[in-house]
Write a structure and sequence with these properties.
This protein is mainly β. Helix content is 3%, strand content 45%. The relative contact order is 0.08. Among the domains are: 32-134, CalX-beta domain (Immunoglobulin-like, Sandwich), CATH 2.60.40; 472-552, Immunoglobulin-like; 555-639, Sandwich (Immunoglobulin-like), CATH 2.60.40.10. A hairpin with a 2-residue loop joins strand 41 (504-507) and strand 42.
Length: 991
């Protein structure tokens, strides 16, 4: 047997090298063995850290059969960024030498099988070397805030970044060291921001008809409504700069008309004198109709400001005056392609102006100091230009994909760029601020991307400012999007053209080695539940960030409703991470039905569940379990005190009579009367002309003495509730409109053609000249009347004197339109509400008595709407809340912040808005305490008793933080939100 093995072994070797000592298979003597060599490596596997200590590899040549030649040693298939020194090593037989392996700071974090090769003449020998490149944890450069923003101010003294966030109605304050959100300060529709010269006060432009100031010490926000100053259209004021003389320059933009600089520019330039709180228009001047002010910029010392319009303007705060310069001066030779951006250095001694193709540097007298071509076309509208605090560099922010181009501001040459690419870029990426320590803060994808500009920049490629590999295609994500806590996982990643060799992966800043020559990735474990970022860094330092595309464990963000009726089976949405396809859900310890779950391929998931009936007043926990683990929300929902559905049909409107403590429910020929204590119907009020005349809307006088009930046939029934049998029908001789209101003067005002007044004491009717809107509403005390134009795109509101009917109207406010109107009890403020039968949700706009639009509502992530508007939104008795019904729920909006306090699900569908509406009669009513809601619903009248008055409802803890939330449902600006309301939308319901 041994002889057979020897022969077999000799046969095999003879095939390759020849066998020595024996005979050949034909019986002749075999040739002698040939000299050869092998290689030995010590160690056979090496771990080298990015930017770490070099590692030594010993290579030995083992001579065989008298081999005596010199062997040349080299290595191949090294990880990207790993070098070996010397590149070639010559060794004599039976000797050894050292190779030094070094990994650069950007070497790819991977495990790879490399090859060490020895060559001598025609002889070659290989040895396998396993190389592992390790990396330390790095700071996660993306910090989710929620919402949307495109401006910021970095306060060096406080080391804080202040970011206006109009999608959440707040100013977010971030730490300049760990970048976490320190405070969320409520602020209505904030947009632009600057610090006043006192170093303690921030001035904030808004997407509303006011500007704000914020005290950085107390965080108190003060409103400064901007009066209408003769402009043709209503303006909002997105952009501001503050000067040393206490003046603030403000851009005014016509709502719904984008400027050349999109959201930052506008058709007016105003000045606010902060010392006496006065506003006036600087441009356009009298008789000048065409004007465009692009974004504003100032020097760090507050003494100088610049902007581009018909000419280029330099403002001196010392002289309080402007000096114009021709655009061709700042953008030579002939203002080619227009001015796209500009900046001033710290003391205003140097001006930089950027066009599509070049940057021009000028002194304060506008002498050209130098120009340089810039790599890649620089677009206007969404871009930003700024000097670094020390004035050494000019930064140009490019978008889609995000990159920060660096120009030498002394030698006037381009140097390179820094990448800030995100997989989801929202058209609003903006360089918010730059710190003196070299950090650039970029607002993008609802968060802040921190770019370290102390590291070397990336050289500009030949084909433009952004390389061809800087989109997500060069970073192949693993197919797995969720794993349990404290468990790493080895998963496959796609190969081929999508995989770019040399990429390092980080999960929430933790390195994730690539294995098997790029076919697998080892996902690191995490003990923190929730969404995680994935960052890919290429060997050139270029990076791309994927925000919240992965999740660990199970983490619940919140519920769509925090108040439930004790009857019915409402559908509620659970938002969270790691729910997987088939989560198990319990409410108050009781398993419940999961109707649908969104795909786990999107880590932030939504599960639609059906909530069972519950005990009145009970607060219940919600628990969710999946293959990834479990999580719970403590006392997440509360069952209200009572819910009753009173059968009825044919209801047009409900109205609460606080004088008699009864509820009126209008039908076509009668007013049904409900006792709120017993919830029993009392004797109805029969209306005159029954059978020949039908009625569809009503109003009660402030003193409760008369009910005025209008008919689409042009009649008004006047009823004394104490003596209803004496009701009279009055012909108005008007084509009826869609609304009715009553004033403190015992008069009813009806819209129509013409509008009419009905004296409820004498029954006299008189036409009212002029136009006051199709929809009018009165305050509960009858001292204020407001109207709204329901024409789409009008945005017109009216203040109507209830005694003389004199009408005041501000300039038309662009794209806005209102489908409902509500007035506070004392008339001190009012709100327009917009919705559409084909769109989910609504938008509430809050006005002061001067008809300045001061704020609009914004939805939190955890509670998006999924049903259409119900007419009859109403202020709470104390004016702190707007109660706004939808088909399946009632929203409680905080009037001071425009944010959602609570959402109450209804036991059955309410009477939703539909075209054509014969009136805008309210479908809900509140009792005088604001604790009981009456709503017209599918089978009758739904009565909902809250656990406390509406004014006392606490703010629900809707998720806002990075790990507990996700993308905001807010839109960028008023016009966009109105367009979204009017556009065709599907409902959120998953099943």
């Amino acid at each position: 047997m041994r002889a057979f093995a020897s022969l077999l072994g000799c046969f095999c070797l003879s095939t390759l090298l020849g066998c020595g000592g024996g005979g050949t298979n034909d019986g002749s003597p075999s040739p002698p063995s040939q000299p050869s060599f092998t290689l030995s490596l010590s160690p056979a596997s090496v771990t080298v850290m990015q930017g770490g200590t070099p590692q030594t590899l010993q290579v030995q040549v083992n001579a065989q059969n008298g081999f005596s030649s010199v062997v040349s040693i080299s290595a191949s298939n090294l990880p990207a960024g790993v070098t070996i020194s010397p590149a070639s090593l010559s060794l004599n037989p039976s000797s050894s030498g050292a190779l030094i392996l070094t990994a650069s700071k950007t070497a790819s974090i991977e495990q790879i099988s490399s090859v060490v090769t020895g060559v001598s003449g025609s002889l070659t020998s290989n040895a396998s070397l396993a190389i592992s490149v390790g990396g330390a944890a790095i700071p996660d450069p993306f910090h989710f805030v929620g919402g949307e923003f495109s401006h910021g101010y970095y306060d060096e003294a406080r080391q804080l970044l202040f970011v206006p966030n109009p999608a959440l109605n707040e100013i977010d304050i971030l730490s300049g060291t760990n970048f976490s959100v320190q405070e969320r300060v409520p602020a209505p529709q904030p947009w632009g921001i600057d610090q006043m010269a006192d170093g303690n006060t921030l001035v904030i432009g808004t997407e509303a008809q006011q500007i704000l100031t914020l005290d950085e010490n107390t965080l108190n926000v003060t409103s400064h409504p901007v009066p209408a100053l003769g402009s043709v259209s209503g303006l909002f004021y997105p952009n501001v700069v503050a000067l040393a003389n206490g003046k603030v320059l403000i851009i005014g933009q016509e709502q719904g008309i984008d400027s050349n600089n999109i959201l930052d520019g506008g058709q007016y330039l105003l000045e606010w004198d902060s010392t006496n709180n006065s506003f006036h228009i600087l441009e356009p001047g009298p008789g000048q109709y065409s004007w465009e002010t692009d974004s504003l910029a100032r020097s760090a010392d507050h003494k100088w400001a610049i902007f581009s319009a018909d000419q280029f303007y330099l403002y001196s705060s010392a002289a309080d005056s402007f000096t114009p310069f021709p655009l061709s001066t700042v953008n030579p030779p002939q203002n080619d392609f227009g001015v796209r951006g500009y900046a001033l250095n710290a003391d205003g001694s140097k001006v930089a102006v950027v066009s599509a193709q070049q940057a021009t540097f000028l002194d304060r007298s506008f002498n050209v100091l130098g120009t340089t071509a810039i790599p890649g076309a620089f677009q206007g509208g969404r871009t930003n230009v700024t000097f670094t605090p020390d004035g050494r560099y000019l930064l140009l922010q490019y978008d889609l994909p995000l990159a920060i181009e660096v120009l030498d501001a002394s030698n006037y040459v381009t140097l390179g760029f820094y990448s800030g690419v995100m997989n989801y870029e929202d058209n609003l990426e903006r360089l918010l601020a730059v710190s003196s320590s070299g950090l650039a803060f970029v607002g993008i994808s609802g968060g802040v991307r921190v770019i370290d500009m102390t590291v070397p920049f990336i050289p500009n490629p030949a084909n433009g400012v952004t390389p061809g590999i800087n989109n997500s295609a060069w970073c192949s994500l693993p197919g797995t999007t969720e794993i349990p806590l404290n468990m790493g996982e080895l998963v496959s990643i796609p190969l081929g053209s999508a995989y770019y060799r040399g990429v390092s992966y980080y999960f929430e800043g933790q390195p994730a080695p690539v294995l098997s020559n790029g076919s697998q990735i080892e996902i690191p474990a995490s003990s923190t539940a929730g969404g995680a970022d994935i960052e890919c860094i290429g060997p050139d330092g270029n990076s791309v960030m994927f925000e919240y595309v992965f999740s660990y464990g199970v983490k619940l963000s919140g519920l769509s409703a925090n108040l439930l009726p004790p009857i019915g089976n409402s559908s509620v949405y659970i938002t969270g991470y790691g729910l997987s396809s088939t989560p198990t859900v319990s409410v108050g310890g009781q398993p419940i039905t999961v109707q649908a779950t969104s795909s786990p391929k999107l880590p932030l998931q939504i599960a639609q569940v059906q909530i069972p009936s519950g005990a009145p007043g009970a607060s219940v926990n919600v628990q969710v379990s999946s293959a990834n683990g479990s999580d719970s929300l403590s006392q997440a929902m509360t069952y209200i005190s009572a819910a009753t559905i009173i059968p009825s049909s044919g209801l047009f409107q409900v109205l609460f009579d606080a004088h008699r403590n009864v509820l009126y429910a209008l039908k076509a020929t009668e007013v049904d009367v409900l006792n709120p204590s017993t919830l029993q119907w009392q004797s109805p009020i029969l209306l005159p002309g029954a059978g020949a005349v039908s009625y569809n809307m009503m109003s009660l006088t402030p003193d409760g003495s008369r009910l005025a009930i209008a008919s689409p046939s042009g009649y008004v029934a006047v009823v004394d509730p104490n003596n209803p049998s004496q009701a009279a029908a009055v012909a108005t001789n008007s084509i009826p409109g869609i609304s009715i209101a009553t004033s403190k003067y015992n008069k009813a005002i009806l819209t129509g053609s013409p509008n009419v007044e009905v004296d409820l004491s004498t029954l006299n009717v008189k036409p009212l000249p002029g136009f006051m809107g199709q929809l009018i509403r009165a305050s509960a005390d009858g001292t204020h009347l407001y109207g709204a134009d329901l024409n789409i795109g009008s945005g017109q509101v009216y203040s109507i004197d209830p005694a003389t009917y004199a009408v005041q109207r501000p300039p038309q406010f662009g794209d806005l339109f209102w489908s409902d109107l509500s007035v506070s009890a004392d008339g001190s403020h009012f709100a327009g509400i917009t919705g559409a039968p084909y769109a989910v949700g609504d938008v509430v706009g809050f006005y002061n008595p001067a008809m300045n639009l001061l704020n609009l509502t914004v939805y939190p992530l955890a509670s998006p709407p999924d049903d259409t508007q119900v007419l009859g939104s109403t202020f709470s008795p104390g004016g702190k809340v707007i109660v706004s019904p939808l088909g399946d729920s009632i929203e409680f909006w905080d009037t001071s912040t425009g944010t959602l306090r609570a959402r109450l699900m209804t036991p059955e569908e309410l009477n939703v808005f539909s075209y054509p509406e014969l009136s805008v009669a309210p479908q809900i009513a509140l009792d005088p305490t604001g604790q009981t809601i009456y709503a017209i619903s599918t089978s009758g009248l739904t009565v909902l008793q809250l656990p406390q008055p509406v004014d006392n409802l606490p703010l629900s803890p809707w998720a806002l933080s990075a790990r507990e939330a996700g993308y905001s449902q807010g839109f960028t600006n008023i016009a966009a939100r109105m367009r979204a309301i009017r556009s065709e939308q599907s409902r959120l319901k998953l099943h």
